[in-house]
Protein 1
Amino acid sequence: MIEVLKYESNYKLLWDDFVKRSKNGSFFHYRDYMEYHSDRFLDSSLLFFEDDGLVAVMPANIFQNVLVSHGGLTFGGIVSDQKMKVSLMLNLFEQLIAHLKTQGIAMMIYKAIPHIYHKIPAEEDLCALFRVNARLIGRDFSSTIFLENRLRFSKGKRWSIRKARRNGLTVRESNHFRAFMLLMKEVLQSRYNIAPTHTGDELSLLASRFPNNIKLFAVHEGEDMLAGVVTFEHQNLVHTQYIGATDQGKKVGAPELILDYLVNEYGSKKKYFDFGKSTEKGGWYLNTGLVAYKEGFGARSVAYDTYEIDVSNGLAKLPALGSSRDIIKNPRH
């Protein structure tokens, strides 16, 4: 029998240790990452026990009587270890829904962990989502390079990299997160009229907590930063959280130089190089210029899915014979 408990601070060590040895957890599932913006989210994370042993955790917050997994993260979802199997996950979801009903929660928003973040296959939750009649409400797309079989950079990207080298530009790691985030703020404000997810102080704090995971690479001309890329390193992949450049930096190919450096630097260390999403509004709007830029480096699409679960439904029963679901299972060729 699965027991569902709400996270409390005394579970911090247990939570973090489980995430560390999980098959699909990332460093931003650690409590020190999740809680840097605790003032913005009412935490309602959950732990799942079977026979007194922890079998899964789920980052989550409450927003207007809806459980969101997790509003402050790109994705939340069930974090599990290699002991997780389909039958256990179905049982877990059954108890999760029962728990939410007792708490008066009417709806759950579930952001599944994309497969590129899995250390080993970990899509048992997708089976359970299907069985609870979860509705797909968002499908964002991230652009990702499969480093073991890289596609060639576009002609334009290769030209920009050569130009940067002719100008004597070089890439170096930097700790000037505040200066870079000021650059990013100007870029995002002028282009899209939006602000970065993190402030310079927040990113500096997170980098101090996770120095092996959060890094800044930059190109300078004298004392001026021309371009920078903030990377989030996970076990399987490296993710570019921010890419920004001044007008002068773009003219001399500084961002392309950094990205070429990083793709080659991580080529033998990671499985994927992930640029992040180029979609908005749950995937309904595609920033064609942004995705084309990323695809110029040989990146191709990976889905980031978001589901809505009506807590009143519970696990679905098997469909009657002859239904449309049987046609899906048994197509006629």
Note: Residues 144-304 form a domain with the Aminopeptidase fold (CATH 3.40.630.30).
Protein 2
Amino acid sequence: MNGFWGRVREAEEAGAAVASATVVSRRAPVSSHVGDRAFVYPDGRMEGFVGGACSREIVRRHALEALRTGRARLVKIRPASAPAEEADGDVVLPMGCVSEGAADIYIEPHLPRPTLMVVGSTPVAATLGRLGQPLDYRVVRVVEEDEMRDVADGATLVLPLGDLPAFVDGMTPASRSRMMVVVASQGHYDDEALAAVLRSGAEFIGLLASRARGAAVLAALHDVGGFSLAETSLVRTPVGIDIGAKEPGEVAVSILAEIIAHQIERQASARMQPAVEVERPGATAVDPVCKMDVDPGASRRTAEHQGETYYFCGPGCRAAFLREPAAYAASSA
């Protein structure tokens, strides 16, 4: 699979999201081995191997949930007959397959690095660009073309203002949803920059301006630019936590403090927006023998009993059902 970290880097560089699933412990008989890995993408596509039919769908479902929440998890798959165990925040799931094996699978979401887009060739913008580097932001500076030669703060990318709309359109949805934008041109091209990012789905948009000038910029975007009040209300202005900042460095710190506080609040909120939009699982059926979730649309193993269709995770469960259909049908009622 071209190396584990190689695949993760490929996804990061492409602005994509992927969840890795790694078998970290197993108890025979199971088909997976310690170190087996798979990757799960937001559309539900799965590459690699971490177990047979019973565990594969469990891993896929929890990998998508890890991408949605942005949080790693350890999934412990145990025989249904095994005694209950303390989970300590892990996910413990019974598996009714006849193998009676067990496996622990570590699932980790790998999300695009958050982008800190700083617009303007001003002292505050320059300091923001420098401070974003050690915080692991992908720093993008946006300035007018004749200002590009003056930007030398180690930004990942320096972009001419005229290319901004195309750049935003070319970002993946996952990258746009993890983009923090600070417009700090201090009146030179605030409106043009905001018009390019207001409908991008960026997580944070801030405008460095006084209250009066900020209100005037937003009013112009509404009156002349055709943006709704709901759209212009997304802009935080004046951006930055009020710490009494006066010098450019102090202002930049106050802005980063607001961005960090916003991210922490977003992560802690029970109403948190998804870290990544993922394919929602469709309706599931329950295998009447092993009690595992089965995708009715994908299952190739079915049986009819008294006018009802039953779905199975594998041939063993279907064979067991056919031997005693009435008993299993009653237990699943």
Note: The first helix runs from residue 4 to 13.
